[in-house]
Amino acid sequence: MIWLTWRQFRVQAWVAAAFALAIAAALAVTGPHLFDLYQSSGLADCTTDCADLAENFSVQAGTTLNATLYAVGTGALLLMPALVGVFWGAPLVARELETGTHRLVWNQTVSRRRWILTKLIGIGGAAAVTAAVISAVVTWWTAPLDDANVGPLGQELFSARGVVPVGYATLGFMAGVLIGMLLRRSVAAMAVTLLAIVLVQVAVPYFVREHLTTPVTSSTAFDPAKIESLGIGSDNTIKVKMALPVEEAWELSNVTAGPDGEEYTGPVDPAKCGRDAGGPRACERYLGTLNLTQKASYIPVDRFWLLQWRELGLLLAVSALLAATAIWWINRKVA
Amino acid sequence: MTSAVTTTGLTKRYGRRAALSDCTLEIPAGHVVGLVGPNGAGKSTLLQLACGLLTPTEGRIEVLGRPPHTGSGRLGFVAQDTPVYAHLSVADHLRFGAHLNPGWDAALAQGRVTELGLDPSQRAGKLSGGQRAQLALTLAIAKRPELLLLDEPVAALDPLARREFLQGLMSYAAENGTTVVMSSHVVADLERVCDYLIVLVASRVRVHGDVDELLGTHHRLTGPRRDPGTLGPGRDVVLASHTDVQSTLVVRSTAPVDDPSWASDRLDLEDIVLAYMSQAGADGRDRVLEKR
């Protein structure tokens, strides 16, 4: 069975290996220069108030080549689940059913369970290993740029860093196999798989990820020095936003509340705050007298790896469920 | 006589449509068995149930004494349209067989491929229909099964390829004593190789028996018009047609027909099969056949 799996999959395997190697080689060649720059710019050793250093480093490192490699590496990891699901997963069983070759292979001295199990483990494993290799080099190479720009908890980038790409690639493959088995048509299965994977890749970052850990909630007294933005409307409404208590974090909610606990929106005294008042200092002093509190909820950046492993666990658990369904289905329902 | 396949009330439904309903039959071991019937009689469904590709909706089926399951080394199956992997070469197919079957007979497989003149490096997708069928047959017999099931293996072949395929099958079955069950809707194909025949019409077995016995006991009687019921015991009327003055009967009879008012003809296998198919039509939907 291992021979057959390899014989039917070897072209795709070589393509995937060549692609992964090409990315790894390009990043390995350009990586040292990027890290030299990261050190020499001072950003690597910076702990607080690094905005200027980051700006400086971004400009120096922002060559066309680096920007392209950054986009290709990140893009490859974001597209990989769909590619694996559509081209490896969906046709795996569907094409056999379409061409009738399932009637040939299932009548050899190999049970259907072993046939599907070997393919799921072999090709699913290949997808996982490819994702792991690409993600390892991409995570290593992009670390300085991510540090200078968004930080690793940015919602889209999180799916293209660390260990979660392994989970997405595995899930994409298993979903493709099961959808192909249910629809029995390669082309239809490829389209449905693509749609399903895109939905998962949107749903997890925006609706699921924040529930994988309990966020930190904070209640901080108003401090004019920590105002991040201040907007005053013509009808004297106001919107105050303070910086989070920690420097890098994934902000889930951040409101400035009045003494009643509700979000404070004014109205403000036009003599203190507004166009005709005495500038921002006066307004800030005025706001300081209102007994405001910042209520925030966020996930600090040091939980990056906790979130990564938990999300990987979730994705692999769902993958295992899909695989189990596929094995059950192929024994009962498919013929 | 032991049975290769036994079914009791075997039924396969897809939603509301029944592909095979309440089929009870017995296929003897040690024969080359022809399973014949019109399109839609349930032959294909029966064979796929027998090799475990399908599971019955109702009823029971036993193959070689056990409920069938795919992945059995005792059973060889050549599916309709003889599927092979189009992008794999002939040699790859032999490797495929060797890797997936513990009982693989490499010498037999290699010998057949050489004998057939197949190019080992050729992709199976580029083979002619006849060559593809031969390759599929090679895969099925080189695993050395006790029972070989063939689902309309020659349906898509030209007459020459048909003859070559059936010759290969026949010589293999004769040498190894393997039980072969082969379905077709073309009696002429089966006549050449089968020594046992089962006629299946609308899931029902109409007649079954040794080919020689069937040929020896069926007669066509032509004579003045009379009631078929007066023919006497031991003679079953399979099919009767009448004109104003004349009756033509197809009769199954163990005793010779010696009534001088009847002209008696021997029938060939095709005539016998057609008579039973027409009889089935007379019972139900298809009355047109009766009048012909």
What is this structure, in a nutshell?
The complex is a heterodimer of chains A (335) and B (292). Chain A has ten helices and five strands.
Explain what this protein looks like in three dimensions.
The complex is a heterodimer of chains A (335) and B (292). Chain A is elongated. The model of chain A has no long low-confidence stretch (mean pLDDT 89). In chain A, helix 3 runs antiparallel to helix 5 and helix 3 packs across helix 8. Chain A is mainly α and 335 residues long. The two termini of chain A are 19 Å apart. Chain A is 64% helix and 10% strand. Chain B is of the alpha/beta class. Helices cover 33% and strands 31% of the residues of chain B. Chain B has helices spanning 43-50, 90-100, 106-116, 129-142, 159-176, 187-193, 211-217, 269-283, 288-291, and strands at 3-14, 17-28, 32-36, 58-63, 75-78, 147-151, 179-184, 196-201, 204-210, 218-224, 235-242, 246-253, 263-266. Chain B has a six-stranded mixed sheet, with helices on both faces. A four-stranded antiparallel sheet of chain B has the order 11-12-10-13. In chain B, strand 11 and strand 12 form a beta hairpin. In chain B, helix 3 (106-116) runs antiparallel to helix 4 (129-142). The longest helix of chain B has 18 residues, at 159-176. The radius of gyration of chain B is 21 Å and the shape is elongated. Chain A binds chain B through residues 1, 3-4, 7-8, 99-101, 103-112, 114-115, 332, 335, and chain B through 48, 51, 53-55, 69-73, 75-77, 79-81, 83-86, 88, 92, 95-97, 99-103, 136, 139-140, 143.
